[in-house]
Amino acid sequence: MNVKRMVLSLACMLLLSSATWALPLTVASSEVNSEKTSVGSQASGASGGGLVDASVSWPSRDQVVRVLTLHDYNTRIVVLGVTGLGAAGAVIGSFMLLRKRALMGDALSHATLPGIAGTFILLTSLGYNGKNLYALLIGAALSGIAGVLCILLIRRVSRIKEDAALGIVLSVFFGFGICLLSVVQKMEAGSSAGLSSFIYGKTASMVAQDAWLICISAGLIVIACGALFKELSLLCFDQGYAASLGWPVLLLDVVLMSLVTLVTVVGLQAVGLILVIAMLIIPPAAARFWTHHLRWMMFVGVLVGALSGWLGASLSALVPRLPAGAIIVLVAASIFLLSMVFGKANGMLVRGMRRWRLSVSIRRQHLLRAMYEWHELDGEHEAGVHVRELLKLRSWTRSLLSQSLKRAQKESLVYCGSHRRWNLTEQGQIQASRICRNHRLWEMYLIQYADIAPSHVDRDADQIEHVLGEPMVRKLEKLLAQKLAEQIPPSPHVLVTGEDQP
Amino acid sequence: MPRTLYKHGPIPGQPPQPVATGEEHPANMPLSIHDMTVAYHRKPVLWDVDLDVPQGKLVGIIGPNGAGKSTLIKAILDLVPKASGRVLIYGKPYKSQRQLVGYVPQRESVDWDFPVNALDVVTMGRYGKIGWFKPIGKAHKEAAMEALQRVGMASYAHRQISQLSGGQQQRVFLARALAQDAQIYFMDEPFAGVDAATEKAIVNILHDLRNNGRTVLVVHHDLQTVSQYFDHLVMLNMRIVASGPTSEVFTEQNLQHTYGGRLTLLDEAANAMAAQGKS
């Protein structure tokens, strides 16, 4: 997984969502929000003055319980809708992410705007109700698809690359949509008010029809992805191979894109066309940190998507003036951040721990070998070695050395004898001789087969000895005709004690 | 009979029955290319390729960078469009002979961070036999496991593919092609970036395939090992310089023609055609 790409998209999400938050347009939706969730007593405080009134009144425990247990009908509708959207977005988003087409969804959602405004203009001028939801969504889907086709067309007829084509189509279609919206506003004052809710979403005023539309689409998407699971995963992993097997790559891409269009269009109402891409990218990206299996990645992604939908909708229902779409995205982003740090498969913490454990074990091995070689030179096993003398053997700092000594002491590999001189325990002796042996076998191999000078070989072997497995040691023994299998060969170079060094 | 992707041709895995009219008949020829030209953005990369590959041979494809070795394979497999010419696999177009063909793409062509394990990747080799919408049955999983075993990767079956070394990844790709159980294999640089042990293991598998009557075409880079690995050779530099038994065509003179300086006029003509396409 390309972590850089994910972090980048996350940053974009955060920027976008905070920008949306600050825009006065969202005030409208939050007012509806407070009415709908029947938090009446607080609405009076909030309705005062748009952005000037910055006070937020916190909900009581009773309200929290009411919202979280889906006590009110409206809350139930909203939560059902966004949870379904989160789940569906995660399923299809996983494929988009792996197909490296995540941003295509963004271009698609932005390209829906001219379709929405255009359909409205067309319907009204023909004398029909311009706000017919299904007509608007069909218009949105058509212009979204047109946007995607434009990207493909630009890529094919010119040498402009996909990212530039995406940028062009996204901004031009959105700009065109904004123009059409202004036409709508001039055309018939007042009646166009609902259209801008497609841009930022109107989660809180979702009605049952919207929620059902989302859930049915989500069901369709899950069924389609389940049926085409192996085909789509093959397409995403290795397109050329899929084509060589005879799978219709183009058709599969069209199916994938159609499903993305479906989830985007039904999600427009819930989170708005600017933020709907978040529901496609963030949940699967977060899920990737938890698992290496595509099926599990989808499952975790669905959980993340549904959870952020539910939490985000509940939060915005509780606190007046919190725009639901943006809150859902921010909740998803928080889960993403947590996954990035704590994720079981790829998280930063896990990887950091792995590195730390490796470096601890390397330091222990260095310590044991240094002590072994000291004794070997000294001949006096009983006397032990002082920290000062050990310090001179390698370029290690005093604090790291004493840390390693303490850790080795805890593992009863070394003990501190009289006059603060350190000695290897019996077990330490066994480990140290094995390490030393591997090190020297590798040194001999380098000298004999790689023509490396004996004076340089110590450092090179240093890198390798920690990763030498049993089979490799056996091979080395065979190669070097090391007949005395369990014995430790003498060092092929002059061992350096502290006294010889400047 | 279960519905599979393949609607035509013989039963998958079964070699086509020889046609009585003798060795040279195209239906007995695993691969026969006639006058094929391939162009990218109107710039020709392969000119007028004529090539016949006999049954049961291990064939090396060599040539300098940019000679069109990968393109040759991709054009045979319909992955890039042909400007002209035709390709026959056992006497029929590729479209109806897919079940006879196995493919190992270049290792770098995919993202190895993809969330699947080695066994999943090898199972992809069976997808053509499984067909649309159907889940992967136990028999196919076993076939995939067997293929992994053949390349010595059975103990890595459940390892995520990003945790495999380059050589191991290459073996997984090879196992995927083996799982296809094909008659003719096309391999794009299977030795690129692999360790010596893996190279040896792969060569052994290739020889096994050949000894079992399969035909194998391999894009290769290392001239040192050519005569050791391959019994048939295709020397390529934008057109076929020579093709035939290695002992006959792997000569100083042919090498000179293949590697010694590009054909400047051919290059120039290609660039001119590309420029024309741009204007």
What does this protein structure show overall?
- By secondary structure, chain A is mainly alpha-helical.
- Chain A has two domains: about 325 residues, ABC transporter involved in vitamin B12 uptake, BtuC (Orthogonal Bundle); about 150 residues, Winged helix-like DNA-binding domain superfamily/Winged helix DNA-binding domain (Arc Repressor Mutant, subunit A).
- Chain A is about 70% helix and about 0% strand.
- In chain A, strand 2 and strand 3 form a beta hairpin.
- In chain A, helix 16 packs across helix 17.
- Chain A is elongated and about 105 Å long.
- Chain A starts with a helix and ends in a 23-residue tail after the last helix.
- In chain A, about 45% of the residues are buried.
- By secondary structure, chain B is an alpha/beta fold.
- In chain B, helix 4 packs across helix 5.
- Chain B has one domain: 3-Layer(aba) Sandwich (Rossmann fold).
- The termini of chain B are far apart.
- The relative contact order of chain B is 0.17.
- In chain B, a hairpin with a 3-residue loop joins strand 8 and strand 9.
- Chain B is about 35% helix and about 20% strand.
- In chain B, the strands form two sheets. In chain B, strands 5-6-7-3-8-9 form a six-stranded mixed β-sheet, sandwiched between helices. In chain B, strands 2-1-4 form a three-stranded antiparallel β-sheet.
- Chains A and B meet through helix 12 and helix 13 of A and helix 3 of B.
In DSSP terms, counting alpha (H) and pi (I) runs of 4 or more, how many helices of chain B? 10
Mean pLDDT of chain B: 87
CATH homologous superfamily title of chain B: P-loop containing nucleotide triphosphate hydrolases
Rg of chain B over CA atoms, rounded to whole Å, is 19 Å
By DSSP (H or I, 4+ residues per run), the number of helices of chain A equals 23
Distance N to C terminus of chain B = 54 Å
* Shape assignment of chain B: globular
CATH topology of chain B: Rossmann fold
CATH architecture of chain B: 3-Layer(aba) Sandwich
Reading off the top of the CATH hierarchy, the class of the largest domain in chain A is best stated as Mainly Alpha
Characterize the main sheet of chain A. Answer: 3 strands, antiparallel
The greatest interface between two protein chains, and residues involved on each side, is: A-B, 26 and 33 residues
What structural category characterises the helix and strand content of chain B?
A: alpha/beta
CATH evolutionary superfamily of the largest domain in chain A: ABC transporter involved in vitamin B12 uptake, BtuC
The rounded Rg of chain A comes to 32 Å
Distance between the termini of chain A: 48 Å
- Sheet with most strands: strand arrangement of chain A: 1-3-2
CATH topology heading of the largest domain in chain A: ABC transporter involved in vitamin B12 uptake, BtuC
